[in-house]
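# nightly structure sweep
# worker-07 picked up a monomer target from the shared queue
# config: single-sequence mode, recycle default, output format = structure tokens
# input follows
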Amino acid sequence: MAGVKNNRRAQYTQQVIQTTVLSLLETKPINMISVTAVCAQADVNRTTFYRYYTDIYQCVETIEKTFVDSLEPIEGRTPTQALEHLLNAFYQDEKLSHLVFVEGKTKLLARMQALMLQAGPQPPMIDDYQGAYIGAGLQSIMKKWVKDGMPETPKTLTKIIIDTILAKDLDDLRHVVL
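# output follows
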């Protein structure tokens, strides 16, 4: 249907623009990507770009929202199951993972954290400092995973993260340090 904003041609054009932005983010920071560069690589004109997005940042926000909206519900899952589910989603979308964990110019981590909080029973009370420590550690592990090319499966990485959070296998080091 001509003139319908969400027709197949419009969806295809938006997908081409988004794919181009993700490709450019592999080599440039988001603030160094111009609409002109996106349009040239995507083979669309600027008017077409601006029909769908006000700028590159809004395009990235749309990519993030589409990703979050595409996730299966995680309600009722344990935190471990929810974490593995999210890691699987990142594992299947390497370019988006690069944007989130290597580029770091995204709000997706905050959205993912909100999803994790909705995922069924929560661990025992964790104070703000512990939560900040665990969150930073989780992000660092995931960033390393993505930078290294995601060599572990999401299931294996979930186990590594849980073991790290619980300080498993660190008992031997405690008496050496203390």
